[in-house]
Amino acid sequence: MAKKKKIDSKKLKKEIMGASDEDQMQRMIKILLIVVLFIGLVWFIFALVNGEIFKKKKAEKEEVQIQNDIILAGSTFNRVEDEYYVLLYDFDGSNSGTCSAIFNVYKDKGSLKMFKVDLSDKMNSNVLVTEKADVNTGSSADLKVVDATLIKVKDGKAVEVKSGIDELNEYKSTLLN
Q1: CA dihedral of residues 89, 95, 101, 102 (deg, nearest 10)
Q2: CA pair distance 41, 78, nearest whole angstrom
Q3: Do residues 116 and 71 lie in contact, with contact meaning Cβ atoms separated by under 8 Å?
Q4: Average predicted confidence (pLDDT) for the chain
Q5: What is residue 129's DSSP assignment?
Q6: CATH number where 109 lies
Q7: Is residue 140 one of the residues assigned to a domain?
Q8: Same domain (yes/no): 98, 44
């Protein structure tokens, strides 16, 4: 006669029903721990490669400079100052070197404030025309220039206008004297 084996009901239940809730919770904690360790290891490797660890980074402080020399054409005649110059030119155009030089020389020597207007900017596109220039106005809405132009504004009105690169070159030579 063959001996009958005693069947353990707990083992049979585990085999049929699967793991208990406690076993599943332990597996989930182990998986979560492995994922966290893997992410930490990857971060550590990247930090070593990028020099974030074991290298002291110098805190570089850059001074913030506010660019208040560049204005829009719409504010040509309504600045706070009573008397000032406005230099209108295409910052990327063929005359940009001459106009930048005039601005820089005047900025160092001049007594009045000088502002720049970039005619290549889309916000200023309504000012640049190919026909006749109309600068002798106190209204920015009516302002039209053909080429590089220097306007002296006093009390919101244009009092002196130098239009074209030839006139600006002459003005530059007077600044250098």
Answers
A1: -50
A2: 60
A3: yes
A4: 79
A5: -
A6: 3.40.30.10
A7: yes
A8: no
Same-domain pairing of 165 and 134: yes
Query: In this structure, what token pair is assigned to residue 123?
Result: 């916000």
CA 17 to chain centre: 62
- Do 53 and 140 fall within a single domain? no
Q: Provide the residue range defining the domain that includes 37.
A: 20-59
Helices (H), 58-164: 96-109
User: DSSP assignment of 5-38, as one string?
Assistant: PPPPHHHHHHHHH-S-HHHHHHHHHHHHHHHHHH
Q: Note whether 42 and 84 are same-domain residues.
A: no
Closest to 175 measured CA to CA, from 154, 155, 150, 143: 150
Q: Could you tell me which residues come within 8 angstroms of residue 42 by beta carbon, excluding any fewer than 6 positions away?
A: none
Is 65 inside a domain boundary? Answer: no
Range list of H helices, 51-149 = 96-109
| 129 Cβ neighbours under 8 A, 6+ residues apart | 144, 145, 146
Summarize pLDDT for 4-34 with one digit per residue, the tens: 666 666 666 666 666 567 778 888 999 999 9
Count of domains in the chain?
2
Residues 35, 78 within the same domain = no
Mind listing the pLDDT tens digit for each residue in 47-59? Answer: 888 877 766 656 6
Are the beta carbons of 147 and 94 closer than 8 angstroms? no
Residues 6+ apart with CB under 8 A from 135: 143, 144, 145, 149, 151, 158, 161, 163
